[in-house]
Amino acid sequence: MNSKRLFRISEEVKKIVSELIINGIKDPRISNMTSITAVEVTRDLSFAKIYVSVLGNEKEKEDTLEGLQSAKGFIRKEIGNKIDIRYVPEPIFYLDESIEQGIYMSKLIDDVNKKTRGNGEN
Questions:
Q1: Helix (H) or strand (E) holding 55
Q2: Cα–Cα distance, 21 to 90 (Å, whole number)
Q3: Can you give the pTM of this predicted structure?
């Protein structure tokens, strides 16, 4: 399949799932601080790898993934309703911790900069 078309479908799935998390899914396990960071649709449109970022502790992350897994059928149905494609990809959710890793790396860099400034002033 054309990679441009796959990209467009992936972006549309990302938009739909993001809106469903905000407005459509009423599961209390899903954290308010949940965002979709990326979506990769396989070439045969059978699966959509959905990367989810959850700001919170480990329990909130696990609960959010469980809530999304239980709403998988509803999410797939909504994707099928809003995108006109023959095969609706099955969503598979993955936890994306790149934002937390970026915050951690930024903190480490700030700590090193403070230490080097502190040593340079003496």
A1: none
A2: 17
A3: 0.77
Query: In angstroms, rounded to a whole number, what is the distance separating the alpha carbons of residues 37 and 47?
Result: 17
User: Torsion over CA of 32, 37, 42 and 45, rounded to 10 degrees?
Assistant: 50
CATH number, domain 3-97, options 2.60.40.10, 3.30.70.260, 3.30.300.20, 3.40.50.150: 3.30.300.20
Place of tokens 């700590």: 111
Phi, psi for residue 84 in degrees, rounded to 5: -90, 85
Sequence spans of domains, the chain: 3-97
39-44 own/partner pairs: CB under 8 Å, 24+ apart: 39/10, 39/11, 39/13, 39/14, 40/10, 41/6, 41/9, 41/10, 41/13, 41/89, 42/89, 43/1, 43/6, 44/1, 44/87
Q: Which residues are CB-contacts of 85 (< 8 A; sequence separation ≥ 6)?
A: 9, 45
Q: What is the pLDDT of residues 14-73, one digit of tens each?
A: 999 999 888 888 888 888 888 899 999 999 989 999 999 888 788 888 888 899 999 899
